[in-house]
Amino acid sequence: MANSIAAERRLLGADFAAVEASHYPALAALSAEDALALARTLREHRDRLRGMVHANRRARRGKGEARASAGNDEALARRKQVFAAALKRVNHRLDILHGTARRAWHAAALKDALARKRAAAAHHPASGPTAGQGMHAKPSAKRKVRTDPREIGRVSQFVKAGQARRDSR
Prior knowledge:
6 helices; 0% strand; CHAD domain-containing protein
């Protein structure tokens, strides 16, 4: 669920300064280096809060060290979600900033590879000695049993007659 800027300001308090630059009029004005630095800062805040939420859950289950809770777990989770959403916005902006340069670099690399392929001499080795008469057929190792078709009919008629005798009894 998306949060409004006012809700983020109310939820984060003093930490809102780190998130403020991730909203769009200010985010569009950032250079790639500044956006990268902002992403690092937001990632650190998000990871710190994620660790706190994880430690609180472990403490509640009795697995972690029993210490005073760092705050309400739901509030910590919402704060973490605010930092995660801000990081998502900044990462998207970084993809936009780096995307055109990355696409141009890949296109140039592909054109260079195509030029190298076209410039390379085709490898067509000599055919060498040929077979002359060609290959010889290899005789099949399967047994060839030819059954007379009349024998097949005789056997099936014999079975049919035997069944009729048993049925009439």
